[in-house]
Amino acid sequence: MLRVVVMVSGGGTNLQAILDAVDAGRITNTEIVGVISNNKNAYALTRAAEHGIKAECISPKDYESRAEFNEALIGGVDSYQPDLVVLAGYLVVIPPEMIAKYRNRMINIHPSLIPAFCGTGFYGLKVHEAALERGVKVVGATVHFVDEGTDTGPIILQKAVEVENGDTPEILQHRVMEQAEWKILPKAIDLIANGRVKVEGHRTVIED
Q1: Model-level pTM?
Q2: From CA 68, how far away is CA 44, in angstroms rounded?
């Protein structure tokens, strides 16, 4: 049984997609053991609590230094003894020590087809604003392992979404979530839970 901790900063729509997929049997061999947010007002914490999952806030604002926060964050994650850490809209920089500790055991969902519209400064609506400004015809989402770079780890899954006439950043954001993020993030967790994802160098292989 794969023990999963989900880390979130906001509403938790991707968390809800994961919870729904576990309930529906689309994610197998998996238990969501905890949810951690940097924001005590994040609705994701409510979603977790309503699902009977332990949820807590570990915020940089509650510590005198970033080093103290990093130590608390790593300790908080470690306390769940997770096999996999899922960043589902988590907007805090992950400490390098944590990345090293959970190498190839931490994944992130990003709302673009990496390497387009990713890296420092590309998050939330900013990604979709940039895509529309550039005039691309296809956008999408990517699930990848987390490494020391920003959105640079080995890619696990990607799904494309077409841009439509009249799209605003908000409309496009919701379509990408609905058609891509909420589908490939649960699928990636299920693949990992069933031992089907192998990392080879900077690439992944999905095994049958």
Answers
A1: 0.96
A2: 24
